[in-house]
Specification:
This is DUF1738 domain-containing protein. This protein has helices at about 10-25, 55-60, 75-80, 145-155, 160-175, 205-220, 235-255, 270-280, 280-310, 355-365; strands at about 70, 80-85, 90-100, 120-135, 140, 175-180, 185, 190-195, 320-325, 325-335, 340, 350, 390. It is an alpha+beta fold. It has a 4-stranded mixed beta sheet. Strand 9 (about 320-325) and strand 10 form a beta hairpin.
């Protein structure tokens, strides 16, 4: 990746989004493909069963595959699958906090053992660095489990329909929703969502899609995620918030298998394209915020589901939990609820329930997701106060 012509991944993503917006076929504009399938299918690693972080999920979802499964060539090979001839991978990024490097002498010569094997060491980074990988979709791989079998197994135990899951998510949020009128919007001053009556919509799914989009705006209130939401309608600051809500609705719709529908997209596309052109790294910030939105809304539902299923709470011997840049395996569980774990480097430790890592692993087990790259905050964000309290019209 040292090619001078290589562009950073957020720039690549921004350029592709701009091109699709101009063609009118972006995920914001065309939520359903010609074959009737959702334009965005939630990407998943079929080996670990885990999803991908928001920016990576958007990148993979923009490939428009019906198959949700994605793996690296190496992971596929270990699983007994192979990349088909002439298939090209899709680049993603992930945070690396350590690296395995060869041990060298003072003169820089690699040290090998008696068998000629290079000796290595694990180097910890002061700050997370960008790791990159090329992933291949299940449709690009040989000898994969039939897709319908994989999806059927994925859906085992799920008794609720997508619309029922959406209704539960909305109910669990405890957001105030007032029905009536012709507009769907969030009023920050009143901290309430205003929605037309359900019968105003083409069908029940369209109603829930619109409600979830407004619920994404609702998370920005100062008592929740506290995002800047003061831009006037039609302004670039207003469009930034719309971009975050739109991406979050795509992620949540993919999770619930509800799909998404950015009903007022035409009003924002020019501003979306301008932001992505002038500030291509804004997409990294927008997807990071969208991840927080979806985590908050989906987490509320998942935590309630966990209370209804006590067997899903806590650790079990043999659990393998992806967290940060490594995987922790639970070696032992104790009556005190403490656990002994081993990370991918072979480091073992005992964690007590009051430890931060213990709580983080418990949350990662309940809400398995690829960690999001932490980007440095850019200074100078507009703090201008606007008069319009309607958001997401």
């Amino acid at each position: 990746m040292n090619d001078k012509n290589f562009k950073a991944l957020p720039i690549q993503l921004s350029n592709k989004l701009i091109a699709e917006i101009k063609e009118g076929n972006s995920l914001f504009q065309q939520p359903v493909k010609e074959n009737g399938m959702p334009a965005f299918v939630k990407p998943i690693n079929p080996i670990t069963g885990k999803g991908y972080s928001a920016m990576n999920a958007l990148i993979l979802g923009m490939q428009r595959h019906d198959d949700p499964r994605w793996m690296s060539a190496d992971a596929a090979r270990y699983a007994g699958n192979w990349v088909k001839k002439d298939e090209k991978g899709t680049l993603i990024e992930f945070p690396k906090t350590s690296d395995i490097q060869a041990i060298r002498t003072a003169e820089g010569k690699v040290i090998k053992d008696d068998a000629g094997v290079t000796q290595t060491k694990t180097v910890e980074f002061d700050k997370p660095q960008r790791g990159q990988a090329f992933l291949f979709n299940g449709s690009q791989l040989k000898d994969m489990q039939p897709l319908d079998e994989f999806i059927a197994k994925q859906d085992e135990g799920q008794t609720l329909s997508p619309n029922e899951r959406a209704a539960k998510l909305i109910e669990d949020s405890k957001a105030v929703i007032i029905h009536g009128g012709q507009e769907a919007y969030y009023d920050k001053q009143r901290d309430a969502i205003f929605m037309p009556e359900p019968e105003h919509f083409e069908n029940e799914t369209k109603y829930f899609q619109a409600a979830i989009h407004q619920l994404a705006h609702w998370t920005g209130h100062e008592s929740r995620l506290n995002r800047p939401m003061e831009g006037k309608f039609g302004s670039l600051d207003y469009a930034r918030e719309e971009m975050r809500a739109a991406v979050a609705a795509i992620l949540i719709g993919g999770e619930l298998k509800l799909g998404h529908n950015f009903g007022q997209q035409a009003a924002y596309m020019n501003n979306f394209a301008k932001i992505l052109k002038d500030e291509p790294f804004e997409i990294a910030k927008a997807t990071r915020d969208a991840q927080k939105i979806s985590n908050l809304l989906l987490g509320t539902t998942q935590k309630r589901e966990q209370k209804q299923a006590p067997e899903a709470v806590g650790f079990q011997k043999g659990d393998e939990i992806a967290y940060q840049d490594t995987t922790y395996k639970v070696l032992e569980t104790y009556k005190t609820k403490s656990i002994k774990v081993e990370d991918a480097d072979g480091t073992r430790k005992v964690l007590k329930p009051e430890y931060g890592l213990y709580k983080s692993l418990l949350d990662a087990k309940a809400n398995p997701r690829e960690p999001e790259m932490v980007l440095e905050e850019e200074q100078g964000q507009s703090q201008e106060q606007g008069q319009n309290q309607k958001i997401g019209r």
